[in-house]
């Protein structure tokens, strides 16, 4: 299933996109595409949950325009495909700022929509990887496991360390351990899991991620280093 959001203050324009999606689904014999419609960019981002795969986002809207919505969106969801919809092609240049996939110029033709939709679905397929929905002060962040360098526990919390931020969640490490171990992580000790793909060096007793050094317990040393050596030989993550 693919989840799509249409953020458009003009109901007529939104209805056109909804019809196009239905037509596309039928013609391409595609799996179910679920569509949610929002007529207000401010309300959309205020209630945003990182559950969408594709967002059609009108640039010219009252209260909060599409570009500002996209900026806020990227704070909590780095992976969703954004397709701007605009009356003027000149606005397309702003898409680079928020890593928009593409744009559609009104009036939108079905052919143009179909081409952009295929592109977006292809991107969605490449994005299909394990993720967590982590509570933050701004709502909920969609955190891809591949972007986590390591995860460790701190009393009753666990901390997900990425290159940009650390995300804290009130949870036991045991609750997420199985998911991480299935996705290129290896256990260093009872309180820490590391992303094999992020390891730059390892010694007899520790793992090195850039300028960060993490200790490996005696009990986990063999399993850990076997996994690392296998990765070094294969040269890629699963």
Quick recap:
The protein is α/β, with parallel strands linked by helices and 238 residues long. Helices cover 31% and strands 32% of the residues.
Protein architecture, described:
There is one protein chain. The protein has two domains: 2-127, Response regulator (Rossmann fold, 3-Layer(aba) Sandwich), CATH 3.40.50; 144-234, OB fold (Dihydrolipoamide Acetyltransferase, E2P). The protein has six helices and 15 strands. The protein is 31% helix and 32% strand. It has helices spanning 11-27, 41-46, 66-76, 110-127, 174-181, 221-234, and strands at 2-7, 33-38, 54-58, 81-86, 102-105, 131-136, 139-144, 148-154, 157-162, 166-170, 185-189, 192-195, 201-202, 206-209, 212-215. It is α/β, with parallel strands linked by helices. The strands form four sheets. Strands 2-1-3-4-5 form a five-stranded parallel beta sheet, sandwiched between helices. The mean pLDDT is 88. It starts with a strand and ends with a helix.
């Amino acid at each position: 299933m693919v989840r799509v959001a249409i953020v458009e203050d003009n109901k007529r324009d939104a209805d056109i996109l909804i019809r196009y999606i239905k037509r596309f689904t039928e013609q391409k014999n595609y799996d179910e595409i679920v569509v949610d419609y929002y007529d207000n960019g401010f309300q959309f981002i205020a209630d945003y949950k990182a559950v969408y795969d594709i967002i059609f986002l009108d640039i010219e809207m009252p209260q909060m325009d599409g570009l500002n919505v996209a900026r806020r969106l990227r704070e909590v969801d780095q992976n969703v495909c954004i397709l701007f919809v605009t009356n003027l092609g000149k606005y397309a240049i702003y898409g680079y700022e928020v890593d928009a996939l593409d744009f559609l110029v009104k009036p939108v033709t079905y052919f143009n929509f179909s081409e952009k939709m295929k592109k977006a679905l292809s991107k969605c397929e490449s994005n299909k990887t394990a993720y967590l929905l982590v509570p933050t002060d701004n709502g909920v962040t969609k955190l891809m496991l591949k972007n986590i360098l390591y995860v460790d526990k701190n009393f009753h919390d666990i901390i997900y360390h990425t290159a940009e931020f650390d995300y804290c969640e009130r949870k036991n490490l045991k609750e997420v351990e199985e998911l991480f171990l299935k996705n290129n992580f290896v256990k260093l000790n009872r309180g820490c899991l590391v992303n094999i793909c992020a390891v730059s060096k390892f010694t007899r007793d520790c793992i090195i991620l850039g300028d960060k050094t993490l200790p490996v317990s005696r009990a986990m040393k063999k399993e850990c280093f076997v996994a690392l050596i296998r990765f070094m030989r294969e040269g890629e993550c699963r």
